[in-house]
Design a protein that fits this description.
The chain is α+β, with helices and mostly antiparallel strands and 130 residues long. It has two helices and six strands.
Length: 130
């Protein structure tokens, strides 16, 4: 285990992209899909300063690395005080998570819960396959 990893250490706050730990995936020949879901993701509207609440479904096909779940929770926690529009948040999540684990494919499906009478759904995808 590396010294800067979150797993196995007491951590009392959110982590940035540097805290997105991974663990080895030793089954590269296996066609697997890993999914994370949460309805506890929040961010701040950059215009009004009001909290926005999100449902997140993240799915990815690992190549050599898996996202570590404790680090994922702490990374997502870090958005609660950040200003972001739903569409930008989805793209940021995809960029950061792809950089962390280099998956064969990844999809971020983000739903901003109803606010002002509208629900916003943003789906962004990454593919390393040719």
């Amino acid at each position: 285990m590396q010294d800067n990893q979150v797993l196995g250490r007491e951590t009392r706050g959110p982590v940035g992209t540097e805290g997105l730990d991974t663990v080895p995936w030793n089954h590269g020949e296996t066609d697997a899909v890993v999914e994370f879901t949460t309805n506890e993701l929040t961010a701040i509207c950059p215009v009004t300063g009001q909290p926005d609440f999100y449902d997140l479904k993240l799915g990815y096909r690992p190549k050599e690395k898996l996202l570590e779940s404790k680090a994922m929770k702490l990374y997502l926690w870090g958005f609660r005080d950040r200003g972001a529009f739903a569409e930008d948040l989805a793209a940021t999540l995809l960029k950061d998570l792809v950089a962390a684990c280099d998956p064969a494919e990844m999809t971020v499906d983000l739903i901003q819960r109803v606010r002002g009478g509208l629900e916003i759904r943003t789906v962004v995808k990454h593919s390393n396959t040719v």
